[in-house]
Amino acid sequence: MGTLIHPPKPQPGDRVAVVSPSAGLPGLFPHVYELGLRRLREEFGLEPVEYPTTRIMGADPRDRARDLTAAFADPSITAVLATVGGDDLITVTPHLDDDVLRANPKPYFGYSDNTNVLNHLYRLGIVAYHGGSVLVHLGRPGAPHPLTVDSLRAALFTTDWYELTPAPTWGDRPNPWTEPETLAYEPEMLPGEGWRWQGPQRVVRGRTWGGNLEILHWLMAADRVPTADELAGSVLLFETSEEMPSAQEVFRIVRNMGERGLLAAFGAIIVGRPKAWDFDKPLSVPERQAWGEAQREAVMRALTPYNPEAVVVFDVDLGHTDPQLIIPYGGEIQVDAVARRISVRY
C-alpha cells in the first residue's frame, strides 16, 4: 500500500453521521440509542445526523450502502459513526460508491462487523478508526467508561500521538438492553492485570491493519484482504466477538492467516482481551480466566511457525470488552516491548 490519507477531523459543533450499515439495532433498543445520541451531543459537542436505515433491522444491503455513501458525500458531515455491529456487512461493501468515498474521505468509527468497512476504506487508501459505538460505548449503562471517552475524544479531535494505557478495571458482562432500568447502573467490572507481552524486546513502528478475527476470516474467504506485500511492515490487531469462538477455532483462523502468507508481514501483533461471558454462556470468573489463557495459548501456537520473532501483546482493551480504546486503522502505531508501552497516532 502507498501513503494513506488521514481525513480531516471534526470540530465541536459539527454534524456527524450516525449510521447502521450492519444491524439496525437502534430500532429495537431506542432507549440505549437515544442515550448514546445524548452523550454524543453533551460529552463531545457533536450533532448526530441519522440516516433512513439507521433504525431498520434487515434493511436491504443496497439501501444501507446508499446511506453510508450519502454520509461521505454530504459536505456538511465531518465524521461517520456506526451505531453497532452485526453479521452481514460483507454484503453491503460491494454496493458502496468507491469514487464518492475516495473523493470525500472522512473519519469512520466502528468495530466488530464494521471491520468490513474499515478494511474497505484501507484498500481505498483512507485511514479509519477501529472502535467507538453509539450503542455499546456511548450508551454504556451508568456512564461512559473514562478510558473510552478520553480515547474517543482524542481520536475525534486530535492528530497527535496518544499513549494507550492498561485498564485498571475491565468487564465483559454487559447489562441487558432488554431491561431499560439497568441503564441506571454500571456493568460488572473486574480488576485489571495489565497487558501480557511475548516475543523479543524491541520497538516496532508501523501501520495498523486487522479487526475482528471472525470477520477477517470471512474477508479472507471472499478474497478482500490486502496482500502480504501490501501489509509488509505493518502491525496486526485483532479481537474476538461476543460469539466467543473457541480456542481451537481461533487457532485455525490465525493458522489460515499464516498459510495465506499474512502473518510473516507483521512486526508486531496486538490482541484484544477476549470476551469470555455472554448471556447464553455465563461463565464464572475462574472459567473466564481459563478461557483467556486458552485463547492466548492458541494464538501463540498458531503464530510461532510463521513469525516467531513478532512482538505480541495480549489483553489490550480494543475489542468487545469494556473499556474500549480507539485504534487508528491504517494509521501509525508504536509498540515498545522494551518499555512496554503502546502509542498510536490519531
TrEMBL record:
CDD domains: Peptidase_S66_mccF_like (cd07062)
Example of a GO MF term: carboxypeptidase activity
Residues forming coiled coils: none
Signal peptide positions on this chain: none
Pfam families: Peptidase_S66, Peptidase_S66C
InterPro entries linked: Carboxypeptidase_A_C_sf, Class_I_gatase-like, LdcA_N, Peptidase_S66_N, Peptidase_S66C, S66_fam
Record-annotated LD-carboxypeptidase C-terminal domain positions: 205-335
Domain annotation LD-carboxypeptidase N-terminal: ranges: 16-131
Domain of life: Bacteria
Keywords annotated in UniProt: Carboxypeptidase, Hydrolase, Protease
Keyword Secreted tagged: no
Family according to the record: Belongs to the peptidase S66 family.
Name this protein carries in UniProt: Muramoyltetrapeptide carboxypeptidase LdcA involved in peptidoglycan recycling
UniProt source species: Micromonospora taraxaci
